[in-house]
Design goal:
three-stranded antiparallel beta sheet, 145 residues, Alpha-Beta Plaits, 7 strands
């Protein structure tokens, strides 16, 4: 086998893009399945900080969002709810002195992939495998809000 420097292949540490999540709310699965609008908010905070703030903010139900590493992903089936949920999450971040990266925030993507996310159910226990595909290179096909 040729070394990575000869093939151009650079191995990736999957822990920097993948995680497994066991959603707190059972309705999360239904919301993911029915979602027609997706958003991503990349923050300047680690997974543990985001988890603590989400768990301490009951008005931000984790049935419409998941946090993956430094990013919060939201999913909804209508624009009114999507915007309300975005407002709640931004308010939560601001109220806790947290910040997001505006260049890595996307609202209103029509599916998970266009929000830079791959999400799969694993087995019958409800575990989710989440892969952050990164900020999509172009959001020109995403409707403006």
């Amino acid at each position: 086998m040729a070394p990575a420097s000869e093939t151009g292949f650079q191995p990736t540490d999957v822990s920097t893009i993948c995680s497994t999540i066991w959603p707190v709310w059972q309705t999360t699965y239904t919301h993911i399945d029915n979602a027609t609008l997706w958003a991503r908010i990349e923050t300047n905070h680690n997974h543990q900080e985001l988890t603590e703030v989400l768990n301490e903010t009951p008005e931000v139900e984790q049935s419409f969002c998941i946090n993956h590493l430094v990013t919060i992903f939201l999913f909804d089936s209508d624009m009114e709810a999507h915007m309300a949920h975005m407002h709640m999450v931004f308010h939560m971040l601001t109220a806790n002195g947290m910040t997001g990266n505006p260049r890595a925030t996307l609202i209103g993507a029509p599916d998970a992939a266009k929000a830079g996310l791959q999400i799969d159910k694993v087995g019958s226990l409800g575990l989710l495998l989440v892969v952050d595909l990164g900020m999509p290179p172009s959001s020109s096909d995403i409707p403006s809000t």
